[in-house]
Amino acid sequence: MMRASAATRLVALALAGAALFPTTLFPNTALAADRTTPALRQPVLSARVTKPFGAAIRTAPDSDAPVVYSSDCGDLWPVLEVRDGWVRVSNGLGDGWIGGGRVAVGSPPAQASCGGAVSLHVGEYVETFVPTGCLSLRATPSRSAAILTCVSNGHAYAIVNGPFDPGTGEDWFEVYSRSTGGGWVLAEHLYAS
Predict the structure, then answer these.
(1) What's the rounded Cα separation, in Å, for the pair 46 and 131?
(2) What string of H, E and C letters represents the secondary structure of the chain?
(3) What is the largest CA-CA distance in the chain?
(4) Cβ-Cβ contacts under 8 Å for 82 (sequence gap 6 or more)
(5) Which partner from 62, 87, 122, 138 sits 20 to 30 angstroms from 26, CA to CA?
(6) How far, in Å, are 50, 71, 145 from residue 84 at the CA level?
(7) What does the CA dihedral 112, 115, 116, 122 come to, rounded to 10 degrees?
(8) Considering the domain 46-106, what is its CATH architecture?
(9) For the chain, where do the domains classified as CATH 2.30.30.40 start and end?
(10) Is domain 125-192 in CATH 2.30.30.40, yes or no?
(11) Listed residue (190, 148, 186) closest to 166, CA to CA
């Protein structure tokens, strides 16, 4: 009986492990699912943004987590995980979390009705307009929240958070300007500068 050298045994163990866990030992190889029978493959899930004001993609599954980037209505994202009403997606440069109510998840996901969609992103500047000429800058994203100030039409703001729907079906953005400070504004009253 021939005895294998220690090096030969290590190579054999590594190759056996690679067959079981290919991306752990050899991260640049094809995924294990690609080498299994079709019956064992998991469906590839995608998330499509369905809200007219898009979606905030956050660092964690929490509405208070910082926004890493914004996504427009109709954008399609590969899903990495779905947990507690949040969807973790990847853009190739990193990943982030979208509130589950802002996307349709599936294989493939449902189409989005994006007619009249508006692209407003964190970090961009917007102007205000409301027919009454007095926009209510509010303390929180709610029509019943305290009004911080009345803002005249054409006031310029930087978007710092949002879009956010507090469960009312209305989108809000948190905005900031030097003259009024920060607060929340209904999305429908903001326009790209």
Answers:
(1) 39
(2) CCCCCHHHHHHHHHHHHHHHCHHHHCCCCCCHHHHCCHHHCCCCCEEEECCCCCEEEECCCCCCCCEEEEECCCCEEEEEEEECCEEEEECCCCEEEEEHHHEEEECCCCCCCCCCCCCCCCCCEEEECCCCCEEEEECCCCCCCCEEEEEECCCEEEEEEEEECCCCCCCEEEEEECCCEEEEEEHHHEEEC
(3) 93
(4) 45, 88, 100, 105
(5) 87
(6) 19, 21, 27
(7) 30
(8) Roll (2.30)
(9) 46-106, 125-192
(10) yes
(11) 186
Per-residue exposure over 51-65, b if at least 16 CB sit within 10 Å of its own CB, e if not: bbbbbbbbeebebeb
CB-based contact 49:102 (threshold 8 Å): yes
Write down the residue that tokens 């790209």 correspond to.
192
pTM for the predicted model, two decimal places: 0.75
| Tokens 């953005």, located at residue | 173
Instruction: Show pLDDT as tens, one digit a residue, over the chain (193 residues).
Output: 444 443 333 333 333 333 333 333 333 334 434 444 455 556 689 999 999 999 999 999 999 999 999 999 999 999 999 999 999 999 877 899 999 999 999 998 899 999 999 999 999 999 999 999 999 999 999 999 999 999 999 999 999 999 999 999 999 999 999 999 999 999 999 999 8
